[in-house]
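RECORD TYPE: inverse folding
INPUT: structure tokens
STRUCTURE:
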């Protein structure tokens, strides 16, 4: 076991106490914790030793690893690589071959029950797992060995979480997610294709720093980052509420920022922080850049109903639906007439605005 705590390792690298406290404060916010949790984070960093992270990569495109290297949070990235220590990562590792494998074995034995295992990629199970082997061993074998010694597992990306693209019909390799094979360890899902870089780093930092599992939703995803749908925080939401939907990618509505629901947006059923944290240093995210959300953080991504097909019949105005729901509970005929008229009015207004946009464009 390494003796140095995270704080001591920082001091050794020349950070002052003031820098440390500043970092701890930023960390608290980044982990999605309330400010009152700052002493807990400070205490953890002062008292806990550096814990190793072993990152295994199986059947994937390496996009999640690439996302990790694109994290724009300099504090967290430095913390992760300099002070927390990603000790084994096949893609980012300088070492290779026998030396790398020996190092992994050594860490797993020395830190048994204490290291965090990160898995990227799905695990092919058909034909004894022959479709993904590393160093002559199947992914199933490598996963079982590492999982049995790990403290907890973080499945990074939709492939490791649910099988992802390799699992898509007809799933020729029998690809599955980690939780399909490992049943006796805490598993945190960080789905996305790829996940938002900061969501990866923050989740790993949470487990390694605090030594605990963050609060999870029913699908095993950290609530701090998967607690709301893309739709909940979407900048196009006001148009959805008013029943204003783009009909094609280059029509007047699309150019005016109208809702992409009819173009197949899965934002209403997709839990992700895309609309808040965004991508590329918070510059934008797909829906903001005029592309519908494809639902990449959900278990049925790829096979779940087609990418560019609308979820269901496009909704009427949300407000009007709310009014109709109100009618159901009140049973007032007058209110029913009122809500129907209101819905009609909203739709008429939307149609008028759309026509005006088109006219302006022409
Ligand atoms: S574009 Fe998608 S996420 Fe945004 S409001 Fe419309 S349906 Fe919701
Ligand atoms: S907008 Fe939707 S499909 Fe796109 S990255 Fe975010 S969650 Fe995935």
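DESIGNED SEQUENCE:
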């Amino acid at each position: 076991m390494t003796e140095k705590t995270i704080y001591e390792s920082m001091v050794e690298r020349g950070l002052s106490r003031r820098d440390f406290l500043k970092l701890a404060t930023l960390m608290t916010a980044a982990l999605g914790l309330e400010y009152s949790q700052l002493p807990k984070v400070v205490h953890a960093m002062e008292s806990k030793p550096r814990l190793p992270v072993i990152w295994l990569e199986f059947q994937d495109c390496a996009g999640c690893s690439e996302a990790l290297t694109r994290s724009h949070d300099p504090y967290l990235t430095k913390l992760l690589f300099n002070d927390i220590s990603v000790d084994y990562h096949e893609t980012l590792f300088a070492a290779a071959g026998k030396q790398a494998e020996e190092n992994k074995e050594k860490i797993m034995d020395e830190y048994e029950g204490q290291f965090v295992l990160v898995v990227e990629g799905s695990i092919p199970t058909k034909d004894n797992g022959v479709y993904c082997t590393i160093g002559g061993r199947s992914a199933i074998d490598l996963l079982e060995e590492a999982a049995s010694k790990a403290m907890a597992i973080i499945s990074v990306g939709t492939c490791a979480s649910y099988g992802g693209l390799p699992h898509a019909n007809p799933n020729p390799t029998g690809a599955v997610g980690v939780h399909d094979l490992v049943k006796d360890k805490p598993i945190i899902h960080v789905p996305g294709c790829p996940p938002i870089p900061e969501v990866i780093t923050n989740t790993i930092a949470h487990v390694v720093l605090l030594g605990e599992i963050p609060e999870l939703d029913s699908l095993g995803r950290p609530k701090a980052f998967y607690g709301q749908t893309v739709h909940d925080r979407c900048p196009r939401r006001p148009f959805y509420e008013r029943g204003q939907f783009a009909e094609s990618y280059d029509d007047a509505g699309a150019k005016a920022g109208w809702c992409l629901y009819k173009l197949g947006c899965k934002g209403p059923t997709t839990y992700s922080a895309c609309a808040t944290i965004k991508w590329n240093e918070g510059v934008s995210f797909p829906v903001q850049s005029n592309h519908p959300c494809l639902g990449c953080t959900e278990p049925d991504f790829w096979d779940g109903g087609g990418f560019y097909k609308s979820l269901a019949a496009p909704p009427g105005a949300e407000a009007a639906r709310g009014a109709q729901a109100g009618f159901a509970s009140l049973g007032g005929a007058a209110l029913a007439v009122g809500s129907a008229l209101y819905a009609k009015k909203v739709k008429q207004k939307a149609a008028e605005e759309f026509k005006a946009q088109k006219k302006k464009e022409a």
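NOTES: Residues 317-347 have pLDDT under 50 and may be disordered.
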